[in-house]
Structures are given as C-alpha cells and as structure tokens.
Amino acid sequence: MNKENTLVVIENNHPLYATISKHFATRSVEEALSSYETYDLVIDLSPLRTKNKVLFLKELVRTTKAEVISDLSLTWPEMVLQNCPKVSGAMSLLFFSPTQKVETFAKNPAAQKHIDDFLAVIEKSGVNHQDLKVGFHYPRAISMIINEAYFALEENLASPKDIDLAMKFGVNYPLGPIEWGDKIGLKYIVDLLNELYEITEDSRYRVSRELKLKGNQL
Fold first, then answer.
1. The pTM is what?
2. In this predicted model, what pLDDT tens digit does every residue of 188-214 receive, in sequence order?
3. To 10 degrees, the CA torsion angle through 101, 105, 108, 113?
C-alpha cells in the first residue's frame, strides 16, 4: 500500500480518527466530494446508514477514478454494493472489537490486499466474509446483546454493574455489554438496530427505550 496515494474519508469524531490521521491523508465527507486531488485508493469510513451511504458513494465514484473501499457497518451491505458496483471492497471498522479483528469483504484479491494492508497499518487484522446479507456478523450480534442488556435495565432487573459482572464472569465475555456499548458508542448501536429493523421488520432488532434515550442524548 502506498500511503501517500491513499485518502481516508473520516470525520474527526470517529473513534479511530487520531490513529488514522497519523498515517493517512484524511477528508470529511463534505471535503471528499469537493476535493480535486488525485489518489489511487479511497477508504471511506463515513458512519452513514444505507440511503445516505449510497448517495455519498455514488457521488464519490463520480468524482474520482480511485478504487473505493467502504465501511458498511451501519448499512445493508448487499443493497449498497448492488447500487454502487464500483465499490470494490467493504469492512466493518466502526464497531470497537476487543480482539482488534475487523470483518471484511472484497470483490477481488487486489481489493482484499488493500484492506489487509490498511488494517495492518492501524494494527488490526481482517476476517473475510463473502456472504454479507443484511450486515456484518459482529456488529449485528453485539448490538443485539447490548440492546438486551438495556431491556434488562429498562425493566429494573439488575444494575449496569451487575449486568456487566454477570456476563464477564458468567459467560466469560471480555467486557460487559454496558461497558462494551460505551466503547462502541451507543448512537452507532441505535443506528444499526434501527437500520436492521427497517430492513427486516424483525422484532429482535427493536431498540429498547432505555438504549434509545442513551444513544440519542444531545
């Protein structure tokens, strides 16, 4: 990977902004669309849901000849990739993982190498998936676990501390679901669950009232 010819689209409130900005040129979503600099590779880490992600990527590929890889953590990946065929790869970097592993998808070996090289620079490693369906596995699964913990809080079944202790010592989780949610960012969890619920209409993805309140705090 030529870091000098790689642009990362990332907002300055992204959890990994400080790390990534040390190694790569960065632009916000707005700046990326108005930039006329030439890059060979654009890695899009914008935290957008499906509709806005498709709109952004369509405009991005119209304005650049670079290969584009996108973080689709908060989207229906199958829909995004169908509507944005020039996007050659995807990943789920937005959700903090205690293992430092990141789910990835690539349309070809060159795109996979770009993803792997990028992750290596920021000291992470990829786990490849070719069947994304309605989303990456880890963000979907951990969001459901965290949501259930907030349903328990909502019903006064236990305190946040007790829930975390029970999951760490009872089922050997590296973090409790409450602290895990804080590490990820509750807004992202709410956004993903809302996206999944709209796509599938499956009640498993209905956001708890308590999580919705916490995740939408101003």
1. 0.92
2. 999 999 999 999 999 999 999 999 998
3. -20
